[in-house]
Amino acid sequence: MRRLPPLPLLLGLLALSLLSVWFNLHTGTLSLSLLDALQHPDTPQAQVFQALRLPRAANAFITGALLGVAGALMQVLLRNPLADPYILGVSGGASVGALLALGAGAGALTLHSAAFGGALVSMLLVFSVAHGRGGWDTTRLLLTGVVLAAGWGALISLLLALSADTQLQGMLFWLMGDLSFAQNSWFGALALLLVTPVALLIAPALNLLACGELRAAALGIEVPRLRIIVYVLASLATASAVTQAGNIGFVGLLAPHLLRLAGARDYRVLIPAVLLLGGTLLSLADALSRLVIEPRQLPVGVLTALLGVPLFLFLLHRAQRSHGG
Length: 325
Prior knowledge:
It contains 14 helices and no strands. By secondary structure, it is mainly alpha-helical.
């Protein structure tokens, strides 16, 4: 893939993100227009637009942006381009918390609070167990996260088996990733505003970390401290995204990978670029999820997986052919 200069890349992604949000706003069973909603705010169509379309479009973009940033941070933390935001079990803790809240018949605010609380518990467990007395290395962190994710998976299966039939559909939709649960975007926006500036501040150190821990340490980087910061930022972004919309796969994996293929390897460029691309991918996926089997809609997580698997396999095959050639 041709490498693009940073400024045209970012401007192109910004234009694409605006188009994706516009497309998402104008997609649905009802024919609604942003211009009509602004000109006639008291009509029922405008109220539907303001109460449903606009919050959902905002949540789709913000959630995708969080997943994109979390994926980029997780990949440099684990030094693995195949790492995704869910690899360390944060999403499993959030899922257990959300299923407990759904099983208790809780409202949206309690559901989000329970999901975020479960994600924080998982984050603290991974951090405390992986650090231990003997320090903290990437292999130990990854193994701890994988084992904890398996444990959360067992608890999720148990909760589904014990739940009433009337609650199962809502639980399954949440687990598959569903933006209809997302009502308020302020929480995700706040997390994005907290994570992104810090990630940009440490971007030069991330460039060195991506070249190897020994090289980063030799150039004056406090690698253990940097790893903790990156882990906290990635976990906070992941927890916020899962709290908003459940488990949505492949966005956090594909967005950084596509940008690296386009030449965006400098984290000072990659962080804002992956924010825009992640938001764009999920905005488009959310719009398509309402079009595929209209008037019904697919959980957006199902669509991202159906589209993400063949696309990622194609990219891997293409990269292998380029490397072999």
